[in-house]
Specification:
By secondary structure, this protein is α+β, with helices and mostly antiparallel strands. 41% of the residues lie in helices and 26% in strands. It has a single domain, classed as K homology (KH) domain (GMP Synthetase, Chain A, domain 3, 2-Layer Sandwich). Strands 1-2-3 form a three-stranded mixed sheet. A hairpin with a 6-residue loop joins strand 1 and strand 2. Helix 1 runs antiparallel to helix 3. It is globular and about 35 Å long. The model has no long low-confidence stretch (mean pLDDT 94).
Length: 82
């Protein structure tokens, strides 16, 4: 499973309106790094971030583990609201 698809799958399960989520991959200056941008509505930020950032940390851990198994690249996930 690709990292963007995995991230999208996880984030869409966390929010009440899955259609409002956008996840995109951006090029990085470093060849060994992948940048993933997650855009969620401001009303859904709490669900994605979680208390004390626990949900966001778990998301980053799962995606990073998948990357190490498949590509062995570092993943940087940015979560922003609109």
């Amino acid at each position: 499973m690709k990292l963007v698809e995995l991230t999208t799958l996880i984030v869409k399960e966390l929010v009440s309106d899955p259609e409002s989520i956008t996840v995109k991959e951006f090029p990085s200056e470093n060849e060994d790094e992948i940048i993933i941008q997650v855009m969620v509505p401001e009303s859904e930020m709490g669900r994605v971030i979680g208390k004390e950032g626990k949900m966001a940390k778990a998301l980053r851990t799962i995606v990073q583990a998948s990357s190490y198994i498949n590509d062995n690249k570092r993943v940087n996930i940015n979560i922003d609201s609109y």
